[in-house]
Design goal:
There is one protein chain. The chain is of the alpha/beta class. The protein is 35% helix and 26% strand. The protein is built from 9 helices and 11 strands. The strands form 2 sheets. Strands 3-2-1-4-5-6 form a 6-stranded parallel beta sheet, with helices on both faces. Strand 4, helix 4 and strand 5 form a beta-alpha-beta unit. The longest helix is centred in the middle third of the chain and has 14 residues. The chain is elongated and about 60 Å long.
Amino acid sequence: MKTFVVIGLGRFGEAVATELCALGHEVLAIDASEESVQRVADRVTHAVTGDARDPVVLRALGVRNYDCAVVAAGGDVGNSALITLNLKDLGIKQVICKAQSRVHRKVLEKIGADRVVIPEHEMGIKLAHGLSGSNVINFIELSEDYGIVEIEAPSAWYGHTIKELDVRAKYGVNIIAVRKKSREMNVAPGGDYVIESGDVVAALGGNEALEHLHDL
């Protein structure tokens, strides 16, 4: 079990907080709105009304003891930046922030956010990948240029080892994991791993290179 503090309980923050708690993690949810706090109070471990822009409030709540903080209050650049600075000053191990735009993301990255997400942007990319290739299961954006795609292994790959397929040289991507039909996950499979029917391959690479996998 990990411990999370989620700041900002709009639709995004509420979804993150309640889902993390449903997955068995300890979650402290914070929002300046008492109404928002009451809405999630029975679905998270702790729910508190407070102003996360004030470092005294965060210190009093003991947020420094949590493994990860999610700054979901992304509506105002200044507020999310100040909250992020407060969390980093308190020594939070990992701070993940929601941003509204690429400019907002750059600001948050420059002040120390460990990861910044633009939910609408990332969801749009996932949808586009799903629509453009029926064999694409999921897409995770790592940056503007790189990502990870989960793709059903093409039938032409069946019976061949990863070394024989040489996808790094042919397509410019690396196979970082393979999920079997049984749901068993093989992380960092060796070159002698044989691709079988039903395998789902996770490939890491540049977004342009990953696009080529759609046509296999």
